Amino acid sequence: SDWTILIHGGAGVITRETLDPAAEAGARAGLGAAVDAGAAILAAGGSAIDAVEAAVRLLEDDPHFNAGRGAALTYDGAVELDAAIMDGRDRAAGAVAGVTRTRHPVSLARQVLGASPHVLLGGAGADAFAREQGLDQVEPEWFEIPERRRQLEAMRARGGDHFDIDMKYG
Amino acid sequence: TVGAVARDVAGHVAAATSTGGVTGKRWGRIGDSPLIGAGTYADDRAGAVSATGAGEFFIRIGVAHEIAARKRMLGETMLGAGDAVIAELGAMGGSGGVIVVDKEGEGGWRFNTPGMYRAMASGGGRRRIAIF
User: Fold this and answer.
1) Could you tell me if the ipTM is greater than 0.85?
2) Apex CA B15: angle with CA B10 and CA B17, to 5°?
3) CB-based contact A15 B50, cutoff 8 Å
4) Helix (H, G, I), strand (E, B) or coil at B42
5) CB within 8 Å of chain B, chain A residues 95-154
6) For this structure, is B52 an active site residue?
7) Which residues of A touch B14 (CB under 8 A)?
8) Run means of pLDDT, 10 residues per run, chain A, 170 residues
9) CB atoms < 10 A from the CB of B110, how many?
């Protein structure tokens, strides 16, 4: 074939026993929408980097997945989001770590790639760069869903740390 | 963690990855996703990789770059290289998976966990969505 796209929405202890039918249906719908968005760009002759950004943006908006809206919470109940993007044509790359307000962290990574001389920006500086670049900003509450709060509270109630549940909740 | 890899009609590849990390992370912990070469890598000389899983292991191995480098320097297929690197990951105690696409447009996934949310589509009409 002349174009190909693949996506993932996380890996871990995902079994038919632990994933209820509604969540499975939602995840499958989200995967389908994301892969179709990327495929549409590629089928129209668009670039691979535009396709992967478009697909990931949809997954970031979908609460079934651990990124953007629906992201795992830190021990203090906050969101700290990471993202990266890389173009195989020239190995140009952009990444962000620990950002808190940008709705689509992958697009912030794309701005790091295209509008800065750097590869990786982190924390408050990356948040400031996002504002400077005019990227869509949201309140931290936008990212949080009840299931993630429940998972965090369950972990804290057990006195555990994140490696106790790494692949279950991450 | 979510991600995508693609090869376009011009033969170029790209990768992207985005994540919230792990529940209860502390001290500014950062996983592999934003570290170029660990969780994300793209090189037209080989292909593109996006990873999901226990980030500390992916960082130590440099999983995404390692897969691309094996293709470029050893002549392995991306999926063959993925097999080898995920096996190494498992031997170290790590778990997770990768999606890959090579410069010729052949794509696939490798993982050592019970499930990975994943999907693919191609210009040849293939479309697949899978979890388990």
Assistant:
1) yes
2) 155
3) no
4) strand
5) 95-98, 105-106, 109, 119-120, 122-123, 143, 148, 151-152
6) no
7) 47-49, 51-52, 85-88
8) 93 84 95 98 98 98 97 95 98 98 98 98 98 98 95 83 52
9) 22
